[in-house]
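Key idea: predict the complex, not the pieces.
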Amino acid sequence: MEKRIYTIAANTPVAPAVYRLELTSDGVPGLRAGQFVEVAVPGKYLRRPLSVSLSEPGRLTLLYKVVGGGTAALAAMEPGAELELLTGLGNGFDIEACREKALLIGGGIGVAPLPQLCRDLRAAGKQVWAILGFNTASELILRDELEALGATVHVATMDGSAGIRGLVTDALRQVRPDFDYYYVCGPMPMMRALYPLLPEAGEFSLEERMGCGTGLCFGCTIATIDGPKRICHDGPVFKKNMLPW
Amino acid sequence: MEKRIYTIAANTPVAPAVYRLELTSDGVPGLRAGQFVEVAVPGKYLRRPLSVSLSEPGRLTLLYKVVGGGTAALAAMEPGAELELLTGLGNGFDIEACREKALLIGGGIGVAPLPQLCRDLRAAGKQVWAILGFNTASELILRDELEALGATVHVATMDGSAGIRGLVTDALRQVRPDFDYYYVCGPMPMMRALYPLLPEAGEFSLEERMGCGTGLCFGCTIATIDGPKRICHDGPVFKKNMLPW
Amino acid sequence: MVKDTSVTLGGIRLKNPVIPASGTFGFGFEMAESYDLNRLGAIVLKGTTLEPRFGNPTPRIAECPGGLLNAVGLQNPGIDALVSDIAPRVRNLCDTPLIANISGFSVDEYGICCEKADACDSIDIVEVNISCPNVHQGGMTFGTDPAAAAAVTRRARQATRKPLFIKLTPNVSDIVPIAKACEEEGADGLTLINTLPGMRIDIRRRKPVLANRTGGFSGPALFPIAVRFVNQAAAACRIPIIGCGGVSAAEDVIEMMMAGATAVQVGSANLRDPLACPTIIDALPALMEQLNIDKLEDIIGII
Amino acid sequence: MVKDTSVTLGGIRLKNPVIPASGTFGFGFEMAESYDLNRLGAIVLKGTTLEPRFGNPTPRIAECPGGLLNAVGLQNPGIDALVSDIAPRVRNLCDTPLIANISGFSVDEYGICCEKADACDSIDIVEVNISCPNVHQGGMTFGTDPAAAAAVTRRARQATRKPLFIKLTPNVSDIVPIAKACEEEGADGLTLINTLPGMRIDIRRRKPVLANRTGGFSGPALFPIAVRFVNQAAAACRIPIIGCGGVSAAEDVIEMMMAGATAVQVGSANLRDPLACPTIIDALPALMEQLNIDKLEDIIGII
Ligand SMILES: Cc1cc2nc3c(=O)[nH]c(=O)nc-3n(C[C@H](O)[C@H](O)[C@H](O)COP(=O)(O)OP(=O)(O)OC[C@H]3O[C@@H](n4cnc5c(N)ncnc54)[C@H](O)[C@@H]3O)c2cc1C
Ligand SMILES: Cc1cc2nc3c(=O)[nH]c(=O)nc-3n(C[C@H](O)[C@H](O)[C@H](O)COP(=O)(O)OP(=O)(O)OC[C@H]3O[C@@H](n4cnc5c(N)ncnc54)[C@H](O)[C@@H]3O)c2cc1C
Ligand SMILES: Cc1cc2nc3c(=O)[nH]c(=O)nc-3n(C[C@H](O)[C@H](O)[C@H](O)COP(=O)(O)O)c2cc1C
Ligand SMILES: Cc1cc2nc3c(=O)[nH]c(=O)nc-3n(C[C@H](O)[C@H](O)[C@H](O)COP(=O)(O)O)c2cc1C
Ligand code: FES
Ligand code: FES
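Result:
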């Protein structure tokens, strides 16, 4: 955990109510895929947890959806403004667990952590497939970015306006991708629907309302095979076999 | 009462811990001398009352001293930032009450409203003398401004580092100014000390911790000859004969 | 679609549920120059006692994170001035229902004030504030003891046929027995909550900020506490509840009503922004649209 | 001049009065990588019960103006794990005094937990939290009834010779009889306050935000209320008081101590800023200089 001031380099809409926030901070090291940060938002008491979307030394990109007051306040901020972040939170994805072929599955704003994950997997020499699910074509984000990072991308939309019509579960059945390990990130109902369809070797990035994001408050507890765990501290990424779903 | 957004044109230190805040807002009319505004300060629940120091259509100058969290937050604000103000609060000074010769007495940051008062008196053709009291020469502000506005200015400092050594009461005894009406503004102990030394024809601008500044909360009540009055609503300026001191 | 924001309080129809709270809206007419008072659902007048009171010495106000302390101490010109002068003057400015807010230091004082309010044509609803110190019972307040709350309600009920609301204090371990005692004695409704006792110290001067040492805490920070009290009382009682405590935005009105309130009072928000009430009222229809609410009354106590 | 920030709590010297509060500092060792735990005045461990508890379903946290609601529901691995595993592990990381925080659902449970804590060398002080529901007395809490508070204190006193602090709830009309009851039964000190019950509703989903419906409100907004409780208890009792509720800055430490606290606990501030405690501690000497305080103990209860 590190507390650090970042400067907003850009804060731009990329889809309806979705923004890409580019931050800079001298000397900050790169953050791991699947880790998250806690952003101090003007006017809110608690910080807001957001996933590392892309990170390199000195730079950090977040991708967020405006869903309430905190994210709305964030969307109103201008380049040049400063933000205080807690960084280096959470365990991150297990890149080593994948032997050769990785499948990434993301739904909605849950796609946010996939770019860094894809980059790290590619850097480790793995092949990457991705299935991205959205409600409709206008919400579609990150396809081009993931392709540029070397992934083969399939898209599913509920209304069929882009890619396969249906849910990521439908896309999974249809595409029948070849992979030895998978990484899932998205809304809980999506993850629960995917759970029985997927083999043992893979992991899920979970979300829960957080008080602290640093393991102090026990606000984000889930039941695992191994007893109660704090999503922020022991997760957010859990292996499938840890989840008693 | 009017609620209005102003833009900070300048926010510059003019003495230790004292700042001149220049604000602009298109179409705003001039405000009266002795009136005040209530400034919404970032991070504080209640607004902060500050006197109109100089005002003309579209422009407003405030002069404030950093004494706590709210004024410190104000001092940290940069030109270009916006502030929400309630304006047109309070009764203001009675310019007509002066026949020919006005004496202005201000102490410490209590000198803030004197520039506008001096300008209005001069515009109405009156002669203006001012006695300004400070602890020490480094705190001395507004002498040049008031002289430029046409006042004859005497200064008193506690340590004698500028002007007469002593309090404004000492200066008053020493200078023996000729006036038919006076206006006093400053810390309560100064006003209470001046009260017995001054004739009937004059007025005092009072201060009290305020909840609203708009007459709603009865937080700022004082006892007057005429019963309890709200400083924000019925003042802040009271004729000497209203004060049962 | 046109949104119906009206609600009924003690048989009286309000065009919307937004009511400035007692003690935070001057005498009632100060804002008439800034906006049309007819826009308000109702108006609660300044807290009134039998005798005129100067109130506490100043400072009476202390700023806090998320709100303020006040120790105004019931400054008011007395019930006779309220019924003969103030209420008629506000009535002249608008048709909005007027609520008198009565405080007392004995059961009898409450009774006499309610009788005088009852006789005043300009007053539509009587709100009895039982959160003030009861000098006869050792510094306790009527609002913290079910028997004392019942006694005041009984006497007030005898004194007036106007709709009678009892305003309760949050300074209790359990609101239910107190709320029920008031209902059983014939109250037409409850207002909750009043302020929570608090204290601030000026660490430079080494003295309490307030001349009165302690004061009542109010403002947005009170909101979750008020929602909880409203929800508990609404579950226990059948009479309507006016939710009060920290309401500052249209969202807060909806939340209070979902918790069980029929209307809301807006207090401290008026101090920070004198246009708070009309701003909230203006924001209601669009928010109702967003939330799929056609009629505000439909959401009362739905959770 | 060198500033003396040390204070004495139940005969134990703390190098400064800043103590992370129970439930807001993980198990106690999470922050050891971020800063040296020896910098803290003391550490309160996570609230512990006789049996392990999973706690409440999620969501357990709701943001509010000036603070948050939590309904963690005393998630903990049970007293046996505390004394055999957790406390020794924290003790291995630092010499800072460790305070066990005990909750129970019956007088006996409190007693047994205190006995086990008493037998644990790693624990220096026992803090008994009597703000949790007492299932045996109809949902009331021990902390709202002087007789129940006395009963728990008596049993805990029999169970341990370590300094015994009783942590009280603000959910009462009058703290004095409860504080005195604890003092009379032999408590070495009091901690006040715990959280205030509150509720938030998700107006879009038309459901309470918390799975548990209600939760405890904490954070800066609680501060003036906590200062008032501390001041009232300090005036009524001779035993030392740990002030808790909203403390977020060095100024708040000074204000709590002037109100009568011997030390302070920092709760929610850790959640917003995990470095809150060392930041506050670092700011103390310069602030003392500004305020002309040489020895922090000199200001306890000076107003
Ligand atoms: C580990 C983690 C990583 C996340 N990564 C991203 C991301 O990369 N991009 C993104 O858009 N969102 C992400 N989220 C969700 C994001 O934190 C919430 O959408 C955001 O906090 C909402 O704040 P708000 O003030 O706008 O909403 P409000 O509903 O007003 O927030 C009220 C409270 O609820 C919490 N909250 C609301 N929704 C959620 C949620 N879905 N999950 C957790 N807490 C919530 C808020 O943090 C706040 O404490 C992540 C959540 C977690 C736990
Ligand atoms: C009508 C009026 C006109 C004023 N004009 C000026 C001016 O032109 N320039 C200037 O520097 N100051 C002026 N003051 C005083 C100014 O309002 C306070 O210095 C300021 O509010 C302090 O805020 P703070 O947050 O820095 O201090 P804090 O002490 O942290 O404030 C805490 C609370 O106390 C109030 N408060 C503190 N000191 C005073 C005070 N002396 N008078 C009233 N309220 C106080 C604050 O408004 C706030 O509500 C005026 C006050 C009044 C009532
Ligand atoms: C300055 C002030 C004066 C008040 N005076 C009264 C009063 O006279 N009678 C009363 O019943 N409540 C009084 N209250 C309490 C408010 O009506 C309201 O119950 C409380 O402030 C909580 O609401 P809020 O958080 O919206 O302010 C007063 C509150 C404030 C801030
Ligand atoms: C998430 C959370 C968990 C808590 N758990 C406990 C607990 O187990 N035992 C206890 O006595 N108090 C518990 N508390 C109360 C705090 O210790 C403290 O008394 C309260 O939060 C007020 O202080 P604050 O405003 O500084 O947070 C908890 C508070 C929070 C926010
Ligand atoms: S959010 Fe506080 S422990 Fe996870
Ligand atoms: S400050 Fe509220 S009436 Fe004057």
